[in-house]
Design brief:
By secondary structure, the chain is α/β, with parallel strands linked by helices. The chain is built from 15 helices and 15 strands. An 8-stranded parallel β-sheet has the order 3-13-12-11-10-9-5-4. Strands 6-7-8 form a 3-stranded antiparallel β-sheet. Strands 1-2 form a two-stranded antiparallel sheet. Its EC number is 2.4.2.29.
Length: about 350
């Protein structure tokens, strides 16, 4: 995937840097462990410190000292997450800030303007994230409105700066509505396409079904992005169904809660059985944490509520995710992704209890 700040090899996982930082990680460290592109968030950066301030200070890349590509989420999912604090109509979304209760309106045009001010390399169209479960009439009305918003985003987009605009396929769990949404977006024309409205409480099998019938609808020559997904298993199964891009807070949030990903499954480092365990987290992992620290030490840091616990745990989890994507790319290039996928699942069936 060619961006104005360089090539991104896919499939790719994007660490989430919601508020102009990937929690606990220096930008230099992210580069060292293989991060190619990171994600920022329109809603949060608009509220604090403000997109106009970031623009005056040289844009998001300079502000956070990251010279690689940045994708910004439109803010639609965060507005959806506010529940009763927001109201959605044809114009956009009116919401109360979770910080101070102040009232704001986010429209397709304003979302694009904020993302342009931030200087993102990939800008997402503003859409409504549909909850699950939801009745068909609501899903149909919401999907149609997101389509109209997508056209407004395309018209609002300032051309010529080299940033890419991605459209977001909605439609809930309804195959015909997903198809209709995809066809409408392709008729408008975007540089890439995403699947939204997944990982919102649906069963994993249903998520895979939506990927199965939605991803082939999208053009092969454009990046295909599954938003907000997910577990290592979700990523491998998404790749198998044709996805190129992923993001999720799971590796960073789980790290802060003491849940660590390994080649054989998850470990909850807070468990007492690791109190005297001299082994690394994952003997198959080459990250700095696994080369220098024991499970016993990582448990001690977590139990003592030390800041270093979050730093080391986050480093390991992100390294695991990024290395998994690099391994998947190598397997695809070698023509053995099917074998790689089978081996991945076989190893994780031996997860420690």
């Amino acid at each position: 995937m060619q961006t104005r700040r360089g090539v991104v090899e896919t499939p790719v996982f994007m660490p989430v840097g919601t508020q102009a930082t990937v929690k606990g990680m220096l930008p230099e460290t992210l580069r060292q462990i293989g991060a190619q592109i990171i994600l920022g968030n329109t809603y949060h950066l608009y509220l604090r410190p403000g997109h106009e301030l970031i623009k005056r200070l040289g844009g998001l890349h300079r502000f956070m000292n990251w010279d690689g590509p940045i994708l910004t989420d439109s803010g639609g999912f965060q507005v959806f997450s506010l529940g009763e604090l927001r109201r959605i109509d044809e114009e956009g979304a009116v919401f109360q800030s979770h910080l101070d209760g102040s009232r704001h309106q986010l429209t397709p045009e304003k979302s694009i303007a904020i993302q342009e001010a931030l200087g993102a390399d990939i800008i997402m169209a503003f859409d409504e994230c549909i909850p699950y479960p939801a009745d068909r009439a609501y899903v149909a009305a919401s999907t149609a409105r997101s389509g109209r918003w997508a056209r407004r985003c395309r018209h609002a987009r300032r051309e010529g700066d080299g940033a890419a605009l991605f459209g977001i396929v909605q439609g809930g769990m309804e195959p015909d509505l997903r198809r209709r949404s995809a066809e409408e977006l392709m008729a408008i024309g975007f540089e890439g396409y995403a699947l939204g409205g997944l990982s919102v409480g649906e069963e994993t099998s249903l998520m895979y079904d939506v990927m199965e019938y939605s991803l082939p609808l999208l053009p092969e020559e454009a990046p295909r992005y599954v938003m907000g997904v997910g577990t290592p298993e979700n990523l491998i199964e998404g790749i198998a169904r044709g996805a190129d891009m992923f993001d999720c807070v799971m590796p960073t949030r789980n790290a802060r809660n003491g849940v660590l990903f390994t080649s054989r499954g998850k470990i909850s480092i807070k468990q007492a059985r690791y109190r005297e365990d001299e082994r690394p987290l994952d003997e198959n992992c080459s990250c700095y944490v696994c080369r220098h620290y024991s499970r016993a030490y990582l448990r001690h840091l977590f139990q003592a509520n030390e800041i270093l616990s979050s730093v080391l745990n986050t480093h390991h989890n992100l390294h695991y995710y990024l290395h998994l994507m690099a391994s998947a790319r190598d397997a695809i290039e070698a023509g053995r992704f099917g074998e790689f996928r089978r081996e991945f699942h076989a190893r994780r069936q031996n997860v420690e209890s």
